[in-house]
Amino acid sequence: MTLALNGAELMERLRVVLQRVAPGRRFALAYSGGLDSRFLSHASGLLGFKPLLIHVTGVHVGGDENLALSWVRRQGFRLKLIELDPLDVEEVARGTRERCYGCKKATFSAIRREAEGLPVCDGTNHSDVSPGVWRPGIRALKELGIESPLQEARLGKPEIHFLAAETGMERPDQLPEPCLLTRLPYGRAPTVGTLLKLKRAEQAVREVLRRAGASQLPFRLRLVAPGRPELHFSRAFAKELTPALMESARQAAVSTAPEDFSGLACRVLDTLSGYYDRQSQG
User: Fold this and answer.
1) E runs forming strands in 176-279
2) SUPFAM superfamilies, per this entry (predicted)?
3) Digits of tens for pLDDT over the chain (282 positions)?
4) What is the rounded distance in angstroms from the CA atom of residue 3 to the CA atom of residue 161?
5) Residue 62 and residue 70: Cα distance in Å, rounded?
6) Backbone phi, psi, residue 259, to 5°
């Protein structure tokens, strides 16, 4: 990968921002376990800062939380856990297009209460604020005064992947692991049962891909309409998406909840993220 600036210059950008945000070299970081918050934890430590990592857990959290938390403990960061029920948030409970705004507002309000008076940061990066992308959660961050050092330092996904690898961070090619609420269309009220079934099914798919040596294949299991579950893969990985592998992944998902996923279909999409936003705009 060729970048306009080298690693040292990119890290210096981040150091300057962190020095402004946390002149005492301590700050609280909303730690999801995704690439961005992991990298910000990792990089800030290399730069001499001491982040307090605060992880909010709940039925809506996707990905492998055990993997995310074990990494924190191996690195020796301070960690606080907060449990949040997103269904207590009105916008989430009703499944509105503002569900991310309501969830972020509740999440970061809880994080601020546990931040020990430290400035609070998150892992929003420069790629997350592209024009025309529907990101209501960012509005909540601004209202609460949350700092986004990666965004301010103009570090987007390419720079973060590059720096993570260059500085020796584990899993620098980590895939996005968005909130499970994004698997439901706007207007559908989520339930604890639905979210848990989605989580178990995605874990089963992830295991199939891992055993096949294809753990870097991104996917989403979505309930696109009543009685219409779909397993979405990215066209960018079409060469690795053999019919046999997709069928194995599909069967693994169905086996976790046959009554819900028996009609599961596989689709290959040009763009994996923002599916319901594109649908609502189209």
Assistant:
1) 219-225, 228-234, 265-269
2) Adenine nucleotide alpha hydrolases-like
3) 444 558 999 999 999 999 999 999 999 999 999 999 999 999 999 999 999 999 999 999 988 899 999 999 999 999 999 999 999 999 999 999 999 999 999 999 999 999 999 999 999 999 887 665 667 889 999 999 999 999 999 999 999 999 999 999 999 999 988 999 999 999 999 999 999 999 999 999 999 999 999 999 999 999 999 999 999 999 999 889 999 999 999 999 999 999 999 999 999 999 998 899 876 654
4) 11
5) 16
6) -70, -25
| SS3 (DSSP) at 97 | coil
Orientation angle between helical segments 65-75 and 35-46, nearest 10 degrees: 0
Please name the residue that has the structure tokens 């025309």: 132
With contact defined as beta carbons under 8 Å apart, do 95 and 190 qualify? yes
